[in-house]
Design brief:
The protein is an alpha/beta fold and about 375 residues long. The chain is built from 15 helices and 14 strands. The strands form 3 sheets. A 6-stranded parallel beta sheet has the order 2-1-3-4-5-6. It has a 6-stranded parallel beta sheet with strand order 9-8-7-10-11-12, sandwiched between helices. It has a two-stranded antiparallel sheet with strand order 13-14. Strand 11, helix 13 and strand 12 form a beta-alpha-beta unit. The chain is globular and about 65 Å long. This is Glycosyltransferase family 1 protein.
């Protein structure tokens, strides 16, 4: 089966920019259009803070079902965030000779998600329809390809085009997160917030959470899960009065939920695999927003902005149970871990740039 998945992975089309100006110099842009399923995590993690920095540039934000009749394509730079639909693709083709450029941004190894066994078929169909099927036409329009990590860039490397890194850019903190209690007898909230495409991580955590909840009666657990995963969680031998299984929320609702309702401990496993190996460490942003003390898998993804005081461990049940025990029983260690992840967000901001790579705006100079 894995051999078949590898063959499918290799056959799936990739984005390949092929539209360049004759002299190799990109024209200056007068305005910016972002096409995105907004609001969504990709836009929040990578685009929002950068667009805020373009105070003097006219910016159009359009959803995938929005019309573009009111947008003038002359001197327009277009950013496509993951997906595009047929009407907007036709609009780009109509204006192609007038555009200042078209960038495609992706933050997942989409062929790996389609070929792998993590994602369900509804999600795979969305990827096939909105991200892969448009590529033959979209590639003829693309002038830039932006990805979230060096590892993801490596999966798309091609001698004929350049892949540029658009690293996560979290917002500056506007308020202090809630204080973590240092009492060892206080009721503690532990969370695992991940989508269904992290099925393997859900299944990895189930026996760990089961054991931790039986050992620590002051521990309450919240997990986001739907369908089969939700049923698997309900079948665990966990006190239902201390476990909350919530359905996946729309992004705006999730932002509000995690801003208004914090957590004490956040579980952040990431198992080795083709899809996960290309991921960025954006989960830190959610953890920081909740003010939680995190347990991270020891891997290249979370090593990127690691700071002293964070907890990074191997993916074994024994190490995860020991780490949970430590955070439940040692309030001071929870505070150290929480503060460390808050510091890692600043490190993430410092390691990125506010500029969109390769765009020149009229009067603003080169943003590369």
């Amino acid at each position: 089966m894995q051999t078949l998945r590898d063959i499918i992975y290799g056959l799936i089309p990739r984005p390949q920019p092929s539209a360049t100006s004759p002299d190799g110099i990109a024209p200056a842009a007068k305005q910016l259009l972002i096409l995105s399923r907004h609001p969504n995590p990709s836009a929040s993690y990578y685009l929002d803070e950068r667009t805020k920095a373009l105070a003097n540039v006219p910016i159009f934000m359009r959803g995938l079902d929005d019309r573009l009749d009111d947008v003038d394509g002359e001197g327009l730079f277009v950013i496509i965030c993951r997906y595009i639909k047929e009407p907007q693709l036709r609009w780009l083709e109509h204006w192609r000779d007038n555009l200042a450029g078209v960038a495609y941004f992706i933050d997942d190894d989409i062929p790996a998600l389609v070929a792998g066994d993590e994602a369900g078929w509804p999600y795979k169909f969305r990827l096939l329809n909105l991200a892969i099927r448009p590529l033959p036409r979209l590639n003829r329009l693309l002038t830039h390809l932006w990805v979230s990590t060096e590892a993801l860039a490596g999966t798309l490397a091609n001698a004929g085009h350049r892949v540029e890194i658009l690293a996560p850019m979290p917002a500056e903190r506007t308020r202090e997160s809630a204080e973590i209690s240092s009492a060892t007898t206080a009721t503690l909230k532990m969370v695992y917030h991940a989508t269904g495409i992290h099925r393997h991580e859900h299944e990895f955590l189930m026996p760990i959470v089961n054991s931790a909840m039986r050992k620590h009666e002051n521990l309450h657990f919240e997990v986001f899960a739907d369908g089969k995963l939700a049923r698997q969680w309900r079948r665990q031998d966990i006190d239902s009065s201390r476990m909350k299984i919530s359905p996946q929320l729309p992004w705006s609702s999730y932002l509000a939920r995690t801003t208004d309702h914090g957590a004490d401990i956040a579980l952040t496993p990431l198992l080795a695999g083709r899809t996960n190996d290309s991921r960025a460490d954006t989960k830190r942003i959610d953890i920081s927003r909740m003010g939680a003390a995190a347990i991270f898998s020891r891997c290249a993804t979370f090593a990127r902005c690691a700071v002293a005081g964070e907890i990074h461990i191997g993916n074994t049940m024994e190490e995860w149970l020991m780490a949970v025990d430590q955070l439940v029983e040692d309030g001071d260690r929870r505070i150290v871990a929480r503060n460390a992840t808050q510091q890692s967000i600043e490190k993430m901001r410092q390691s990125a740039t506010l500029a969109f790579p390769g765009i020149r705006f009229d009067g603003l100079g080169d943003m590369a």
